[in-house]
Design a protein that fits this description.
The protein is an alpha/beta fold. It has 20 helices and eight strands. The N and C termini lie far apart (about 50 Å). The structure holds iron/sulfur cluster (SF4) (2 copies).
């Protein structure tokens, strides 16, 4: 907590960050047992962190939940006129709570799991490339863990979660179609370390993951690393260099790769998609890493598609509810926020929501079910692969 003392002092309690925190709306407060007046706002969390740091407040389980159900969406960071890095305060307070035995059980479970098994699911590393064996087996024959120009960093979700195989398959089919020289690390890929870093851990428990992945990618002499997951993308492009210095390869998100294909290689999408579509800005891709335009360039290049922006977009976009490990401890809150987001798209007459984040895709599917909505949710990689007749 000493690390954040100066950061805590920057807060002048103006409340500018309060109004749009997705974990606080009148409707949601009614459903919670924690008093909602200020505790569930960024300002409330900053003040509680200050109380903990000054030892005026004793930690307990309910306080812990407040910090662990922050979505890490950075809306408050963007809104704060004093430049308070609320997300850093949240990470460090999470760590303090963990070290004092107050982290929620699902958090300690996921941390132990990832540290031990090198992936968030506790599954065998040898099975990391099993997803390639269904619809893209031929593409990956002789391609796994070998020197190449490009490495596709698949991530834990894209590797192990069956519902998300379409994302990993989509980008693989496109890379193959345009004859790129690419590889994946397979069992040598470890979790990017995001779930560890989100708990404020910056020591070797996190660094060993960053160092391992960079070493393995370096060994394959890759020039570019493509990530479909904004969490992996943020780790590799922004957080790893903070600790390890400049990396010997560029890191791009798959939406940036697709935009390059369109803008620089003249890719034309042959098939039409007649729909009124909106885009869910993933927080870790947009507000955290500044990638807003490329996914829009890809979406608007689709013939027949009518693209509609929400009023709150780009820096002001509202989180889908699935970020920052919050879904791990409070799936109901995450899904409830996704339901609100689905309704915001519906109010604009949008019938297809396009995402470029595996977490948004899954959480919006949950929100769609809760909202009993007919809105279609599509992943950008999978959608483009389909419109190129590759699936
Ligand atoms: S975190 Fe920033 S915006 Fe929020 S109350 Fe403090 S100074 Fe104001
Ligand atoms: S990061 Fe998002 S969810 Fe967390 S306190 Fe800030 S606005 Fe609220």
């Amino acid at each position: 907590m000493e690390d954040i003392e100066k950061e805590l002092q920057k807060c002048v309690r103006c409340g500018k960050c309060r109004s749009f925190c997705p974990t606080l709306t009148e409707k949601r407060i009614e459903t919670r047992d924690i008093p909602g007046w200020d505790t569930r706002t960024p300002r409330g969390r900053v003040n509680i962190a200050k109380g903990l740091q000054e030892k005026k407040i004793t930690p307990n389980q309910k306080i812990s939940e407040l910090f662990y159900n922050c979505l890490f969406c950075a809306y408050c960071v963007n809104a704060c006129p004093s430049g308070v890095d609320v997300n850093h305060i949240i990470e460090k307070t999470r760590l303090y709570l963990l070290e004092n035995g107050f982290a929620p059980t699902p958090i300690t479970t996921i941390l132990d799991t990832v540290l031990e098994s090198k992936n968030i699911f506790g599954l065998d590393q040898e099975d990391r490339a099993e997803w390639t064996e269904f619809n893209v087996e031929e593409i990956y024959e002789g391609r796994i863990n070998r020197p190449a120009e490009i490495a596709f960093f698949v991530g834990c979700q894209g590797s192990y979660k069956g519902t998300l195989a379409l994302v990993s398959e989509g980008i693989s089919l496109i890379l193959d179609k345009y004859k790129y020289d690419f590889t994946i690390l397979g069992e040598d890929e470890w979790c990017c370390g995001n779930p560890i870093h989100l708990i404020g851990i910056e020591d070797d428990r996190f660094l060993s993951f960053a160092k391992h992945n960079v070493e393995k990618l370096k060994k394959l002499n890759v020039k570019t690393v493509i990530a479909t997951c904004p969490g992996c993308f943020r780790m590799l492009s922004k957080i790893y260099p903070r600790y390890l210095g400049e990396l010997p390869f560029e890191v791009i998100h798959s939406s940036q790769f697709l935009a390059k294909l369109i803008n620089e290689k003249g890719l034309k999408i042959p098939n039409e998609l007649e729909t009124r579509a909106g885009f869910q800005d993933p927080c870790e891709l947009g507000r955290h890493c500044g990638v807003f335009e490329e996914p829009r360039e890809v979406i608007t290049s689709i013939p027949g598609l009518n693209f509609v922006e929400l009023e709150n977009n780009r820096m002001e976009s509202q989180c889908c509810g699935g970020g920052g490990l919050a879904k791990v401890i409070d799936d109901n809150l995450a899904t409830e926020i996704a339901k609100f987001k689905i309704q915001a798209f519906q109010e604009k007459g949008i019938d297809t929501i396009i995402t470029s984040c595996l977490g948004c895709y899954l959480n919006l599917l949950d929100g769609k079910e809760k909202a009993e909505s007919k809105t279609t949710i599509r992943d950008l990689n999978d959608l483009i692969a389909e419109l190129l007749d590759l699936t």
